[in-house]
Design a protein that fits this description.
It comes from Streptomonospora salina. Keywords: Hydrolase, Membrane, Transmembrane, Transmembrane helix. InterPro entries: YdjM-like. By secondary structure, the chain is mostly helical. The chain has one domain. The chain has a two-stranded antiparallel sheet with strand order 1-2. Strand 1 and strand 2 form a beta hairpin. Helix 5 crosses helix 6. The longest helix has 22 residues. The radius of gyration is 18 Å and the shape is globular.
Length: about 220
């Protein structure tokens, strides 16, 4: 959401960003879901456990292909690869993109806690209903997903930025170099700093950006 004012009306790699409210909402949600994709290499991650045996199988495949947890899936190469494949999907089939958006939103909502906590069937149903409703609303609004590849790649980069602030760091230049940017200088994952400082700061930032980007008073019905 923070980059929307800078992208609107601009052209990048042949894609022009004419962003209305629908595109802003869709882009934010797509980025949120895509930001979890790099952790598909970990057995215990949110994304790995979102769609049952399908994502668990993909997790095992990614772990094998990209040299274990937090290696290849946390590289600039991976972000470019995932973004390029998504863009190719958008060019191939608009319907395929709608399905992909549905899957990404489900992952994003699961990451926010609206998911299969403790394998709860009720939570999974609620996630599916919310995801379906939002996807249908965006489709009905005629959202143009010609930018989706860049949004997915950017979501991965956001993930890298967060992980670079942790003590394990990120091998951005994998497989050319396994040097981890930020290693041994960041905070511990799921430690006191993340729970008490980083997470609240991110939540407040999202609220402030929402107030800045959207004309909320204009959206309210007149009394």
């Amino acid at each position: 959401m923070a980059v929307v004012p800078f992208l609107d009306g601009q052209e990048f790699l042949g894609v022009r960003f004419d962003l209305g409210p629908g595109e802003i909402v869709a882009g934010s949600l797509v980025c949120a879901g895509a930001a979890l994709i790099p952790d598909l290499d970990a057995k215990s991650s949110t994304i790995t456990n979102t769609y049952g045996f399908v994502t668990r199988w993909l997790s095992a495949l990614f772990n094998w292909m990209f040299d274990g947890h937090r290696n290849g899936t946390h590289s600039l190469l991976f972000a470019a690869l995932i973004g390029g494949l998504t863009q190719a999907l958008a060019m191939w089939s608009p319907m395929a993109v709608q399905i992909f958006v549905f899957l990404l939103l489900g992952i994003g909502f699961n990451g926010l806690g609206l998911g299969s906590d403790k394998n709860s069937v009720a939570a999974s149903v609620i996630n599916a209903m919310a995801t379906g409703a939002v996807t249908l609303a965006l489709f009905t609004a005629g959202v143009d997903y010609s930018w989706i590849g860049l949004a997915v790649a950017f979501g991965c980069l956001l993930h890298f930025g967060g992980d670079m602030a942790t003590e394990l760091g990120v091998p951005l230049m994998w497989p050319i170099s396994k040097y981890r940017v930020g290693q041994n200088i960041g905070f511990t994952t799921d430690g006191k700093v993340e729970r008490n400082l980083v997470t609240p700061a991110m939540a407040i930032s999202v609220v402030l950006l929402s107030l800045y980007l959207f004309p909320w008073p204009e959206l309210l019905p007149e009394v």
